[in-house]
Write a structure and sequence with these properties.
alpha/beta; binds pyridoxal-5'-phosphate; 37% helix; Aspartate Aminotransferase, domain 1; Aspartate Aminotransferase, domain 2; seven-stranded mixed beta sheet; 2 domains
């Protein structure tokens, strides 16, 4: 998955990459010609000959299934569609986004290794890196991922990976993936990217990343009816995760239920339409918030520090995404404002994102609460930051008028 050594990564951006058409072009025929492949509701699989079972155990029998913690046909259909979307050789699906993240990290790192990570990441990821990995004596240096000099300086001889999010949670910084890929190639470390906020919009492997991880709980599934994750990478890396002797996914076992794989698979086919509508609605609100004089973060407006970079990285047609943050300075003000918005029917006061309805939460007191307060301050996370995941509202002006009335009631505008 590496770009050729002598080819500057930024050149790759001129090639049109269309994840939605890649999924559309994938024809997956079900067992009985079913257009939605049948759900394989089995934990184990039978063999006519014992030798085939033995070969399958060692991963040498293409098309055969052994046991559903290893591979399940329904999971394979979804994994193949995700690999097509990302332009990777292979993919693997997991029972949560955290399983995708932790399995990838544990597969790549051993005791004594070192990771360079963006300081701004989802709170659960931060906690895993900062607290949990200590058990394995794996050290992590947290950096400002937008400061490339700081990233490179943090690399040591025992560094195995650079970890970041394409669009960071919750500050919506944009990672310069081609530049990070150049640093990672130079130092022979892997670049692992969480693309949860920007599916379709950004294709990290096309920008030089080695491995892409997802919480499919969010935009990819889009229905808030389950928790799931994915890892998109080379065939070699995915096979290493599934290895019966040393594969982290095989041995820790965070397998996704095939019923869920099947429903996520169907939802994946509408992802491109949903991303466009999330982006359209978020851009509308961002412009209204800006005009009202609020302090906002949205990569789609020219004031965002990485707006130009985002334009370079993004695939055409999917917009700047559905996430916006506004800074109300104190958590008390943020709490009152969110309660009022929920009462007015703007959406739900809830964590998570990528849902068809608008969700909002105060990041410092919710999805980033695992991050110690001093680190929150260092990364520039305000106490009053309200993160919006903008929904698929048909009439976004109507939603804006409700938000505007809440802002006025609280004398914020
Ligand atoms: N990555 C990001 C960017 C997230 O926002 C989250 C959850 O909020 C996760 C990963 C974890 O995913 P899950 O809750 O599916 O385990």
């Amino acid at each position: 998955m590496f770009l050729p050594e002598n080819q500057p990564a930024k050149k790759q951006q001129n090639m049109k990459f269309d994840p939605a058409s890649n999924i559309q072009d994938l024809l997956q025929f079900g067992e009985f010609g079913d257009v939605n492949p049948s759900i394989t509701d089995s934990a184990t699989y039978t063999f006519m000959e014992a030798k085939t079972m033995l070969d399958t155990f060692h991963g040498e029998q293409e098309g055969c299934f052994l046991y559903s913690r290893h591979w399940n046909p329904s999971n394979k259909y979804l994994a193949d569609a995700l690999a097509a979307m990302e332009g990777t050789e292979a993919a693997w699906v997991t029972a949560s986004g955290m399983a995708a993240i932790t399995n990838t990290i544990l597969q790549l790192c051993s005791t004594g290794d070192h990771i360079v990570s963006s300081m701004t990441t989802y709170g659960g990821t931060f906690a895993f890196l900062a607290n949990y990995l200590k058990k394995f004596k794996i050290e992590v240096t947290f950096v400002d991922i937008t400061n490339l000099e700081q990233v490179e300086k943090a690399i040591r001889t025992n560094t195995t990976m650079i970890y970041t999010e394409s669009m960071t949670n919750p500050l919506l910084q944009i990672s310069d993936l081609p530049a990070l890929a150049q640093i990672s190639r130079k130092h022979k470390v892997k670049l692992v990217v969480d693309n949860t906020f920007t599916p379709m919009m950004i294709a990290p492997v096309k920008q030089g990343a080695d491995i892409v991880v997802y919480s499919m709980t969010k935009f990819i599934n889009g229905k808030n009816d389950c928790v799931a994750g994915a890892i998109c990478a080379s065939t070699e890396f995915i096979a290493s995760l599934a290895d019966v002797n040393s594969g982290t996914s095989m041995l820790l076992g965070p397998v996704l239920d095939p019923m869920r794989s099947s429903s996520i698979h169907k939802n994946l086919h509408t992802l491109h339409i949903r991303m466009k509508q999330h982006s359209l609605n978020a851009m509308y609100l961002a412009e209204r918030f800006k005009a009202a004089g609020l302090k906002i973060i949205y990569p789609g407006i020219p004031e965002h520090p990485q707006h130009e970079l985002m334009k370079e990285l993004m695939n055409p047609d999917f917009g700047f995404g559905g996430m916006i943050a506004i800074d109300l300075e104190t958590s008390e003000k943020a709490a009152k404002f969110m309660e009022l918005m929920q009462k007015e029917g703007v959406g739900y006061l809830a964590v998570s994102l990528g849902y068809f309805k608008t969700l909002f939460s105060n990041s410092g007191k919710s999805t980033s609460s695992e991050v110690p307060e001093d680190v929150q301050k260092k990364m520039g996370l305000s106490d009053g930051l309200v993160r919006f995941s903008v929904g698929l509202d048909n009439d976004i002006e109507r939603s804006w008028l409700k938000i505007q009335s809440c802002l006025k009631t609280m004398s914020i505008i």
